[in-house]
UniProtKB/TrEMBL annotation, chain B:
Belongs to the bacterial solute-binding protein ModA family. Gene3D superfamilies: Periplasmic binding protein-like II. CDD domains: PBP2_AvModA. InterPro entries: AvModA-like_subst-bd, ModA, ModA/WtpA. It comes from Halorhodospira neutriphila. NCBIfam families: modA. Keywords: Metal-binding, Signal. Pfam families: SBP_bac_11 (PF13531). The keyword Signal applies. This is Molybdate ABC transporter substrate-binding protein. SUPFAM superfamilies: Periplasmic binding protein-like II.
Length: 229, 253
């Protein structure tokens, strides 16, 4: 069999996995406290935060891409601040793609976590409190284990959704091999240049990979359900 | 209630069903020619009574769309290769091909101090924007120029690619890339002051950018499309095309 994937295609695939991995790690770190707050808070303006979190679900990628390009560039608030601090603007860098992907995939991580936390209810936490557990302790030893299905769903959906990112990257990526040329962009370029064999190979690979990922999660979720978690 | 909406609906249906009294021509136009075709459009419409609908993209991208049956009547490419290939494949009318403009490549920066010649490529900068050489002829010309200047290899990692020349231009205009290779026509629209600084790349550094137009096979007998190609070869169009920084070669091939 001839080599279906060139080294550039493999590089794009590895880069995509790295981007999805880093993005999900960052989103779990920031999204967990946010989801916890959303699940517990009774603040009136909570609904506004919920709406903001859901925005990437409905906005076209061009709106996100445009704002990110402006914000991350040297004249934008984020890019400008970084430059003033002696750093480099984020547009057209891997770090810039991570920031973009975190915005893009935010609801896919926060919403399952929020639902999982909300489903726990107050009883287990209050029980833990009566036994003298502090708030951090309660969160880590009671809430997180009980919300494990939520974490699994959030991690998978965040990861898979970032794999599927295209429009935003097209606008803030710049198609740099090894840095911002992710699989979706590589496929787009193969299609544009009528290299259908390479487009087929990469597309099939992404399709199978994403399917396997989702299959694993649904299967795991069923097992959790079966054992009462 | 339904009776009240009925006349409006009928009117809408009528408007949709009645064809425009003159014809319509759909043109696929290479990105670098966007501003020029927009300036040509009202003149063409005034001169012929036909309506022109323009879709822009990179030459390679439009070529792929036409190969896949996109409903265009005419193709204004930024090279000769793609119109020729369409003619070879029977997707374009062979005799209709002609060079409507010859473009120039410019190294450009939004910073008025930055570019004073090829040495700008040796200065300090993070990003150099070019159009994707595989789909955009101006990107290919940029690659050839960088190779000719001995900077292609050493600048890898700092080169960012736009999907077409307009995206490359946007990268530079927004300050996200300090430098970029763009089409001269993007910088020198008549009546608009030029921004930043530029170096007009001497033509020995890249193959000539001969931009050819071709009538697509599906519009072989479509009078409005034929009128557009005739209009592009006329003196009124030529005068305007020149004002955007193009030259018009006498040789058709």
């Amino acid at each position: 069999m001839p080599e279906l994937l060139s080294s550039a295609d493999w590089q794009a695939f590895r880069l995509t996995l790295a981007l999805a991995g880093v993005t999900v790690a960052g989103l779990l770190l920031l999204g967990t406290p946010l989801a916890w707050w959303l699940a517990c808070s009774r603040a009136r303006w909570k609904v506004a935060v919920e709406a903001v979190v859901a925005l990437p679900l409905v906005l076209p990628p061009t709106v996100l891409g445009f704002y990110l390009l402006v914000a991350l560039g040297p004249h934008g608030p984020i890019g400008g601040a970084l430059e003033a601090l002696g750093g480099a603007p984020l547009a057209f860098t891997f770090a810039g793609l991570v920031v973009s992907s975190m915005v893009y995939s935010l609801p896919f991580v926060v919403q399952p976590l929020q639902n999982a936390f909300a489903a726990i209810g107050r009883a287990p936490l209050e029980a833990a409190a009566t036994q003298g557990a502090g708030p951090v302790d309660r969160f880590l030893t009671v809430a997180v284990p009980l919300a494990r299905r939520g974490f699994l769903t959030a991690t998978t959906l965040g990861f898979a959704h970032t794999l599927g990112e295209f429009g935003v990257v097209l606008m803030v990526g710049g198609n740099i091999p090894g840095e911002t040329q992710v699989v979706s962009i590589a496929i787009f370029e193969h299609v544009e240049t009528l290299e259908y064999a390479r487009a087929h190979a990469l597309s099939a690979m992404l399709l199978l990979f994403s399917f396997a990922l989702l299959l694993a999660v649904y299967a795991l979720n069923r097992r959790f359900q079966a054992v009462g978690l | 209630m339904p009776y009240r909406t009925c006349p409006i609906l009928a009117l809408l249906l009528l408007a949709a069903a009645v064809p425009a009294h003159a014809g319509e021509v759909r043109a696929a136009v290479a990105g670098n020619f966007k501003a020029t075709i927009e300036a040509l459009e009202p003149r063409f419409e005034a001169a012929t009574g036909h309506e022109l609908r323009v879709s822009t993209g990179s030459t390679g991208s439009l070529y792929a769309q036409i190969r896949n049956g996109a409903p265009f009547d005419a193709f204004l490419a930024a090279d000769r290769r793609r119109p020729r290939k369409l003619a070879e494949r029977g997707l374009a009318v062979p005799g209709s091909r002609f060079t409507y403009a010859q473009g120039r490549l410019a190294l450009w920066s939004a910073d008025p101090e930055r570019v004073n010649g090829p040495q700008a490529l040796r200065g300090e900068f993070r990003r150099l924007a070019i159009a994707n050489p595989r789909t955009a002829p101006y990107g290919l010309a940029a690659q050839q120029a960088l190779q000719s200047l001995g900077r292609w290899r050493s600048l890898q990692g700092r080169i960012i690619q736009g999907q077409n020349i307009n995206q490359a231009h946007q990268f530079v205009a927004s300050g996200n890339a300090e430098l970029g290779f763009v089409a001269l026509s993007q910088l020198s629209a008549p009546g608009r002051p030029e921004r930043g600084s530029r170096w007009l790349v001497p033509q020995q550094h890249h193959a000539p950018i001969r931009q050819q137009a071709v009538l697509l096979e599906r519009a072989a007998d479509h009078a409005p499309a034929q009128a557009l190609l005739r209009f592009l070869q006329g003196p009124e169009a030529a005068e305007l095309i020149r004002r955007f920084g193009y030259t018009i070669p006498d040789d058709a091939e």
